[in-house]
Amino acid sequence: MGISEWDFETGLVRSQAYCAGAEHCEWEVRNLLERHGLSADDRDRILERLKAQAFVDDSRYARSFVSDKLRFDHWGRRKIIMALKLKHVESDVIAAAIEGIDMEVYMEVLEKLTLDCFRRTKAADERTRNVKTVRSMAAKGFEPSLVARILNDCEIVDND
Fold this sequence. Notes:
The protein is an all-alpha fold. It is built from 9 helices and no strands. It has helices at 8-21, 26-35, 40-52, 58-71, 77-86, 91-99, 103-120, 126-139, 144-159. The relative contact order is 0.10.
């Protein structure tokens, strides 16, 4: 069964329900409407209505996305930024959302994940183990310099 085509009213009602169920950015809603065969003009009109009614707000979406990805998925800033760019969120909106990160919470998450990763990593020597840990944390979107700083601080603690 293919995707049904919507008219303007159906698109408006369905997109309101879509946005009421969870936070979505403009790009996601636009894709939903496009998949259901609405014209560009109808998509634009529906999105304007949704914005006016506060169903769609990319700033609110970005703040929520940043918070959720850090708290629940343990993503670093780099990965979060790339994910938001893939959703076509504007750079200034992304920057504002990233600035809203509580650095104390960010560093706590990063330290816990780094130490867990370091303990799980198998390597012949400590340098290789550190490199593997930094690479693994970089893949999660964390800044290698911050990971290296944590590992260096932990080396001092481990050597005492």
